[in-house]
DNA sequence: GCCAACAGAATCGTTGACAATCTTGCTTCG
DNA sequence: CGAAGCAAGATTGTCAACGATTCTGTTGGC
């Protein structure tokens, strides 16, 4: 499970609706462009419309849902061009994070990155694209985290949430993990060398490759 | 209330509450960390609490308001460190926009940028920091716009909204406009030369200087 | 046969009231 | 005199009902 969002017991109605709706969208349980009728969701989740409404407003602000006045909400679909534009933003922000992380990273954190790297190699060797995709996600998340750039991390998480569908399709493409693996290992290597410029360059190279792949 | 920017007549209650609250915060009518009691706001704006609540949820997602469960909302205060972190993100994203703009810009748009540049020179010469600050804001906004990067523009507008207070304080500091002017003219020059790398470098140099100034 | 007006259904927006929670100030006991 | 406990007040969270808007399918006229 790449993301947090555990509906802990003492949760409030709105929070529960928010986390469950978010998970449903991110796990692909809701088809893209599917209508999200407030009454249905309220009944499904056992909360009132007000809570669903609050959750939808928040999801709209996060770019996961599209709302039109008096017409309703639907799961937002991101076109390929939009996915490219989002990835370009990721390139700028993750580049920043990688550079910062290369300077700030601790030895234990370096060990964790190295471990992720070998796990990714194993996943590719074993031909397990789903595992690889999860490790991929985890690696990016860890690097962001290690940078200590709270603002950038927040923005990146918003952006990534919008890409779930595309990310998945990408990981399942034959040959893609092999290509991607090399770039990821280069990122790890640059951070291990504590070289901020090299780390930023490696991340940018990787995401440039992602953009090319997105465009088919 | 000197609030223009009409919440156009046919506007819905929630939209009205949102625009007015947003303006009030951005114009500094609400002291930082001021409590935002839903009932008070509802009465002040002549709408119901539900509309205020919806507006507050949206403003929280935009980073302008802080909400704590069962405790209420307040205007979010951004510390200096946070302002620096935000500006670092701006550096990454505006750098991207400037590079794209340098390639995509049209001749009329170039003329507009040049015009802004001369207006800024005049404002500095006449010693009008407020006018300069507005032109500054306009220049950055135009460059973003000309890049055509919708996603990046959206993120940047969110980030900028959080900086209003700091931006103001910066513009009024003696000597700052003179320093800033040179950097802005360099940005314009690089875009006129349609040189993406130079444009990105100029923006980054400018925002690095802003960070130094923020830190005092 | 085609288009415009119209009624009905579906859905969202708004309202006022009630419940849950937190804060604050007072009281009481050690 | 100080601290724990309690009660009142303030504020947010939740709810169910009402009103407004948009969509859809049908009917009537041309």
Can you walk through the features of this model?
- The structure is a homodimer of 216-residue chains.
- Chain A has helices at 13-26, 38-45, 49-61, 80-104, 107-125, 129-147, 150-161, 164-171, 176-192, 196-214, and strands at 35-36, 65-68, 72-75.
- Chain A is elongated and about 55 Å long.
- Chain A contains ten helices and three strands, in the order αβααββααααααα.
- The first copy, chain A, starts with 12 loop residues before the first helix and ends with a helix.
- The first copy, chain A, has a three-stranded antiparallel beta sheet.
- In chain A, strand 2 (65-68) and strand 3 form a beta hairpin.
- By secondary structure, chain A is mainly alpha-helical.
- The model of chain A is unreliable at 1-9 (pLDDT under 50).
- In chain A, 71% of the residues lie in helices and 5% in strands.
- Chain A folds into two domains: 13-75, Arc Repressor Mutant, subunit A (Orthogonal Bundle); 80-214, Four Helix Bundle (Hemerythrin (Met), subunit A) (Up-down Bundle), CATH 1.20.120.530.
- Chain A binds a DNA duplex (30 and 30 nucleotides) through residues 12-14, 37-39, 47-51, 53-54, 69-73.
């Amino acid at each position: 499970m790449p993301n947090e969002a555990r509906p802990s017991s003492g949760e409030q109605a709105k929070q529960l609706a928010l986390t469950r709706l978010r998970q449903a969208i991110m796990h692909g349980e809701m088809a893209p462009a599917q209508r999200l009728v407030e009454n249905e969701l309220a009944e499904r989740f056992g909360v009132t419309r007000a809570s669903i409404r609050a959750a939808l407003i928040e999801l709209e602000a996060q770019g996961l849902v599209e709302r039109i006045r008096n017409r309703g909400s639907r799961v937002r679909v991101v076109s390929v061009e939009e996915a490219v534009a989002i990835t370009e933003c990721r390139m700028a922000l993750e580049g920043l994070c990688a550079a910062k992380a290369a300077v700030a990273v601790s030895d234990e954190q370096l060990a964790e990155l190295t471990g992720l790297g070998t796990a990714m190699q194993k996943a590719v060797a074993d031909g397990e694209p789903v595992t690889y995709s999860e490790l991929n996600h985890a690696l990016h998340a860890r690097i962001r985290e290690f940078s200590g750039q709270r603002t950038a991390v927040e923005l990146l998480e918003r952006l990534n949430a919008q890409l779930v569908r595309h990310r998945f399709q990408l990981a399942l493409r034959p040959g893609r993990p092999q290509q991607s693996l090399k770039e990821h290992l280069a990122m790890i290597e640059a951070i291990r060398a504590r070289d901020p410029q090299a780390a930023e360059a490696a991340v940018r190279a990787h995401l440039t490759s992602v953009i090319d792949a997105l465009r088919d």
